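Hi D.,

Good news: the full-assembly prediction came through. Inputs first.
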Amino acid sequence: GIQVEQSPPDLILQEGANSTLRCNFSDSVNNLQWFHQNPWGQLINLFYIPSGTKQNGRLSATTVATERYSLLYISSSQTTDSGVYFCAVYGNKLVFGAGTILRVKS
Amino acid sequence: KAGVTQTPRYLIKTRGQQVTLSCSPISGHRSVSWYQQTPGQGLQFLFEYFSETQRNKGNFPGRFSGRQFSNSRSEMNVSTLELGDSALYLCASSAGEGYGYTFGSGTRLTVV
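Then the structure:
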């Protein structure tokens, strides 16, 4: 089945810093999403981005489907950005990476 | 538009019992899928339903089952609970191919 690898596994930032999270996947996919899991466990959809680039405020994402990777950029990080970020891809089912734990310090 | 609603939010069950979890998708969404999240195994796919038909199933024992009703609401059932079934169970709905998935708040199941 499809393998999804996320890096880095852990990231500690000072408030105001920028960061890049990476997602590599092993096969062609029909769908790629980035999620932020809040402290209560809910997965919040950040981007649906099977290809191309999208931006939403301080967050942006780029997927290069032909090279099988996606990047999530967080600019001017805030403490509320802390949490776990997941990449998930859909071949015939939704497969998640192990996540990146982000801690933003004030 | 109401989001994906999962009930109950928290549940404590005894080993050997069975449990039923419920998921109401976003209005108009016909695809519902279920996931188990544990610290050791991460987020794992359980099954996906579309228009009352199971479209795909993950690698879980037969104790895990699900169904979808004509109004797209879905339930999953776990029989003969084991301690290892303690997890956060997440449900997601989608409008179909070409659309993303929206997740509910989850049901946190503790088996004692």
